[in-house]
Amino acid sequence: MVTQNINDPINLPNDNDNHYKGSLVLRMLQKEIGESDWWKSVQLFVKSNANKQINTKDFQQAIEQTTGKSYQWFFDQWIYKMGMPKFKVTKQYNTSKRIEINCKSNSNKDSSMNMGRQISFKVKWILKLIII
Fold first, then answer.
1. Is the pLDDT of residue 79 over 60?
2. Strand arrangement of the beta sheet that strand 98-105 belongs to
3. Residue 96: which of 131, 58, 128, 53 has the closest Cα?
4. Rounded to the nearest 5 degrees, what angle is found at the Cα of 14, between the Cα atoms of 9 and 20?
5. What are phi and psi of 128, to 5 degrees?
6. Please, which pLDDT band fits residue 81 given cuts at 50, 70 and 90?
7. Tens digit of each residue's pLDDT (9 = 90 or more) over 53-66
8. What's the rounded Cα separation, in Å, for the pair 3 and 55?
9. How far apart are CA 32 and CA 112, in angstroms?
10. Residue 111, pLDDT above cutoff 50
11. Which residues contact 3 (CB under 8 A, 6 or more apart)?
12. 4-9: long-range contacts at Cβ-Cβ below 8 A with a sequence spacing of 24 or more?
């Protein structure tokens, strides 16, 4: 994965987020397209781009050519559009001496993104307070 938006090129090699994120995104993409198409895409990418300067778009094109499907939604979500989720955390103390903590995403949903899968979760912690 090649970073398109570089604010500080000197510190790019020291950016651990890029290294870890790149490997995780590639693994997610491999799972999304399947083993067979993944390795066909990698082979096409290597053959098509030998001895050339490349960027992420070149890899995306190899995947889309191999699978016959658009993965623009995937690349937009995980590579091209930057950002992180925002959460609203609330707490409530109830009469049975318990604290309820709720966490909800406040992120704006971009209607142009199609995640392919919808994942939702609710976390609820209940802590018992002992007053001495």
1. yes
2. 87-94, 98-105, 125-128
3. 128
4. 110
5. -95, 125
6. confident
7. 999 999 999 999 99
8. 9
9. 19
10. no
11. 12, 18
12. 4/55, 4/56, 4/80, 5/82
pTM over 0.70: no
Identify the pLDDT of residue 108: 55
Taking the C-alpha atoms of residue 38 and residue 26, their distance in angstroms, rounded to an integer, is: 10
Beta strands in the chain (DSSP E): 87-94, 98-105, 125-128
Assess whether pLDDT exceeds 70 at residue 117. Answer: no
Residues 6+ apart with CB under 8 A from 118: none
3-state secondary structure of 120: coil
- pLDDT of the residue at 13: 56
- Spatial distance between the Cα atoms of 72 and 62, rounded to a whole number of angstroms: 12
Name the residue with tokens 């890899």: 59
Dihedral angle computed from the Cα positions of residues 27, 31, 35 and 41, in that order, rounded to the nearest 10 degrees: -60
Q: Please report, as a single letter, which amino acid is at residue 120.
A: S
By DSSP bridging, strand 125-128 and strand 98-105 are: antiparallel
